[in-house]
Structures are given as C-alpha cells and as structure tokens.
Design brief:
The complex is a heterodimer of chains A (about 110) and B (about 120). Chain A is mostly beta strands. Helices cover about 0% and strands about 50% of the residues of chain A. The mean pLDDT of chain B is about 95. The chains are: A mainly beta (about 110), B mainly beta (about 120).
C-alpha cells in the first residue's frame, strides 16, 4: 500500500536558522511527491512537487525539497526560517490506485521562534 | 487565494440531518476532489470528478455522495449525519486527471459540526 510518513509531530526552530521537515514514502513505481502548507483556518497551499529529474526541487516562499530514492525520503528544507513560516506542513504522494488523488501524511507543525 | 471557492464556511446541524456542501473550481480546471480533514483521521480523499464524471473513490461512506455539474461546480451531499462526521471538508481542483502530476489547489474548506 502506498503511504507517506512524517515522523515528527512538531519541529521547533529559531528564526534565521535552517529548517527541515521530514517525510518518507512507500510507493510502488515512481513516486510523485508534493508538499503543502496549511495556515490556521485556511486551505492547503501548494509548495512544490517532485516528478522526476533533479533531486533538489525548488518551490514557493524559498522552500525546497530533496528527493532521495535510496532512503525513500522527500524532506522539506529552507535555509533561513521566518516566523511567518510557522504553520502545518503536509507531505503527500499521488495515489496511483485512485486517479490523481493524494495520500497525505499526518502533518508536521512547524514553529519558528523570534 | 487559490481561486477555489467553497460554501458555506461553517455549518452546524443535528444528527440524522442532510447537508450539501458546494465547491467552484478554479477557472479552467476540470477535475474536482473532495477531502475530509479530522483530528483522528487526518486528511483523507473522498471522491474525484472530472468533467462531470466520477473518476476515483476513496474512503467515502455510502451516506455521502457527490456530483459535478455542467458548469463544473461540485456538490458533496452528506446524509444521516453522525457526530463523527464533524470535520473540515475541502474541495480541490486541478487542470486534468491523466498525465501530470498536476498540483491540486484547495479551497478554504467547510467546517461541519454535527450536534
């Protein structure tokens, strides 16, 4: 069965420091991976996606993600965190058994302190 | 603003009742998805429509149904509501259903509270 796992419920980082939000996946075949962010009382916003090719994917708001096939990981990163980055982050994989629907991880709350 | 609209924002109703949630996709998007977000189940895919036709089903209960109309807006119907149906219901849209993968754009959600 396909799945994504986000091993950390919460990540705390100081403003200006680099941040990493972890995601591992389990899929059969080539994975199509996504990161979304959810601010309080808002819908999910698309950050970036990995299809194929370059293992480092750049996305919105200065975020990037590193795809690692051998470790089946797709970690979200940002070189310098902002307080405004504090939100709930979701990793997702395309569900090949359900058209183009997404299977989401349980989410990681990122808290950036000033 | 994603361009996906959902109404109503909030809905409070009693057990056993029926409600309808509405979604308008981004201009040009043919594919509509419905997701349920709850504390215990997380974000779960319910159902997908593409250009008026059902394309995929996820963990959707038999009490729930959906449709997509010729103008591409979609409605999610929830009936015989139970307390456990209380959740945030999201609609998302994307440009297509094959090829891609195309990112999905999410609406602000409808918060359903069943009392």
């Amino acid at each position: 069965a396909q799945s994504v796992a986000q091993p950390e419920d919460q990540v705390n980082v100081a403003e200006g420091n680099p941040l990493t939000v972890k995601c591992t996946y389990s899929v059969s075949g080539n994975p199509y991976l996504f990161w979304y962010v959810q601010y309080p009382n808002r819908g999910l916003q698309f950050l970036l996606k990995y299809i194929t090719g370059d293992n480092l994917v750049k996305g919105s708001y200065g975020f990037e993600a590193e795809f690692n096939k051998s470790q089946t990981s797709f970690h979200l990163k940002k070189p310098s965190a902002l307080v405004s980055d504090s939100a709930l982050y979701f990793c997702a994989v395309r569900d090949i058994k359900a058209g183009t629907a997404l299977i989401f991880g349980k989410g990681t709350t990122l808290s950036v302190s000033s | 603003d994603s361009g996906v609209t959902q109404t109503p924002k909030h809905l409070i109703t009693a057990t056993g009742q029926r409600v309808t949630l509405r979604c308008s996709p981004r201009s040009g998007d043919l594919s509509v998805y419905w997701y349920q977000q709850s504390l215990d189940q997380g974000l779960q895919f319910l159902i997908q429509y593409y250009n008026g036709e059902e394309r995929a089903k996820g963990n959707i209960l038999e009490r729930f149904s959906a449709q997509q109309f010729p103008d591409l807006h979609s409605e999610l119907n929830l009936s015989s509501l139970e307390l456990g149906d209380s959740a945030l219901y999201f609609c998302a849209s994307s440009v297509a259903t094959t090829g891609g993968p195309y990112e999905q754009y999410f609406g602000p959600g409808t918060r359903l509270t069943v009392t």
